[in-house]
Amino acid sequence: MLERTAPAGSGDSALLGTARRIYREWYGKLPRVQPLHPYWAAMRHLIRLVDRAADNGAANVVVIIGGVADTVADHLPGLHSQVSLSELLEGNFSKAFHQPIKFDLCICTLGASELRRFRDMVQTIAPYMSSGGKILGFYPNFSLRSLSTDEIAFLQNILDLPWSVRIHYAGSDKSARVVRRFHATLSRDAGGRLAKLVRIATILLSVTPSALAANRSEAAAPEEHSPRLPEHCTSITIDVTVTERVVPAVIEARRHLEKAISHISPSQPSYGSRWQPQIDAIRRDIPALRDSMSCLHYAQKEITFDGRPPFQSDLMQIQFREWAVENEFPNLIPTLRQMYDNPLSYPESLGEFNGRTISRIFYCHARIVLAGITYANRPKRILEIGGGYGEIARLWLTNSIAPAESYVIVDIPESLFFAEVALKAEFGDQVAYFEGRDPGTRILLVPIPYLGDLTRSADLVINTGSMQEMTDEWVDFYIEWLAKYDTRYFYSLNYIAQPIAVMGESRNLWSQRLGAEWSTRHLRLNIPLLDLEGPTRDFLEALYEKSPATRRLKEWSIDRGHLLSKPTYVEGLDLLRQDFTIENAKTFVRTVMERMPYHPKELLYIVEWLTRQGESEFESLRGKLREELGGFLSHAPAPPKNP
């Protein structure tokens, strides 16, 4: 008969298991410890608040993972979600859910660095909390580190949040002595698991009577004493109750949005694969947005209005951007240096440079304003097609050399919601929403369903970085409208000459296809500032004046010996735009096919136009180019991941 030999260390394992059971029975398990535990007084406010929330029906829990409080609400029955603080502040949280989720409880363990970011965390997570939901920040101070003056100021700043906020401090002379001894024992790394168990057991036996007395004494103190910072602080519990306090500007913007959506014509073009998923997400999430800051942060992080990365620690990269703009507009350097980003923008994107608050994307916005001022002779009346959340408008209205007297934004209703809230936060009653009647305000927001009723004229119409993402049907819509609208200039900064096979976020084949009623006054391929942001697309900056075009394709410089390159391709494309005939289109297509090393997207637009005019000889080329395109312009954005 074989004898069974016990595996090495099995006695130790059995002893550890027995000790663990006894320990948990008498002392509990962090974070839910018993009154005999040295940390009980430090944990009691957190546990009390979680249990009270559970008694009030809290179910769904989100945990900002990272510490001792993570599991304190694991017993709640609803949805449990986890996210890191960095992912939350980077705007990735909402992308995890197909449907809007409301959480009843949010738990976050705070270290010294997270304590400083707690206010930002609250403002970011608040839109996802139910009315009456609680956000609990727990700062364990078992090392009894003294709070700095700055940290105390940060805590006081939290009290200014637009919700009910209470701060509960734990700590006394008695509990501090117990916590200090126990924490010192836990922090020692000498010996193995059994040795550590012996040390913990020894210290527990010696401090348990003192811990129980200290815990009872601290628990007996009136609750109104907890908001006072004790000399020896063992923990801080921050209790934020999120109530449904929607600011009037958001309520009004919601009403405007709903009414505008109800007036959308059935014949309106589709938003396309670039924007329809974003429109769906916006309509889903707007009910959770309650104030100007949450709306602005959502617009900057969740929608592709602009690229707003974290502020760079390498200030030389910021300096390069400032130099790039100053080099283009040296006469407007003082104007540029008086401009600044919206201070309500989400904090990670902002930084200080040359005495003002800016972001990386700030220079793109500011440059558009300076270009319009320069090339369109300081226009006073501006209309912007696709104004995003209104940042270019804000800079144009506040610049020191040529502030706009009238600024109109024409956009889809969902985008105008964000522009309305952001601009009203700064300009108040100067902002009005157009619903068929012009109230004469300095700033007017015009949703597409009411565009046909707009009569206010403009010196300059601008579109930057958005026509490139529109479908061809939307480009046609705006070009037809521009032909009838009372304006002198049209400024465009959009993609051009992209290879058909590398379309990216483009959703049309030719953005700058104005009719012959527009003369070209300024044409420039690529901008130094945009090259700094990443030279992955070719941009065409163009200024057109509404006067009959007089130039002809026969002026194309390649007929004078110039090589066909991207700049001369763009030159020829604009000449064709002004002199668009079947013969000129044929000449342009044949020249590009013979001399260009790749196939730009506009080529397919022209070939398709020729086939529609009955030029059957281009059918095979059309099929070839369509095959190169792959039958679509670009993949739709990826759907959000399941929680």
Strand content: 15-25%
User: Distance between the terminal alpha carbons, to the nearest Å?
Assistant: 55 Å
CATH architecture of the domain at 14-242: 3-Layer(aba) Sandwich
Question: What quaternary form is this?
Answer: single chain
**CATH topological fold name of the domain at 14-242:** Rossmann fold
* Rounded Rg: 32 Å
Output the number of helix runs: 21
| Residue runs with pLDDT of under 50 for 5 or more positions | 1-9, 631-643
Helix/strand structural class = alpha/beta
Which strand order do you get reading across the main beta sheet?
13-14-12-11-15-16-18-17
Provide the residue-averaged pLDDT: 89
Overall 3D form: elongated
Largest sheet: 8 strands, mixed
Count of DSSP strands: 18
Overall CATH class of the domain at 14-242: Alpha Beta
Helical content stands at 40-55%
Could you please describe the fold and organization of this structure?
- By secondary structure, the chain is of the alpha/beta class.
- It has a domain at about 15-240: Rossmann fold (3-Layer(aba) Sandwich).
- Helices cover about 40% and strands about 15% of the residues.
- The chain has helices at about 10-25, 40-55, 85-90, 110-125, 150-160, 175-185, 195-220, 250-260, 270-285, 290-300, 315-330, 335-340, 360-375, 390-400, 415-425, 470-485, 530-535, 565-580, 580-595, 600-610, 620-630; strands spanning about 30, 30-35, 60-65, 80-85, 105-110, 130-140, 165-170, 235-240, 350-355, 355-360, 380-385, 405-410, 430-435, 445, 460-465, 485-495, 520-525, 540-545.
- A hairpin with a 2-residue loop joins strand 9 and strand 10.
- Helix 6 (about 175-185) packs antiparallel against helix 7 and helix 18 (about 565-580) packs antiparallel against helix 19 (about 580-595).
- The protein is elongated and about 100 Å long.
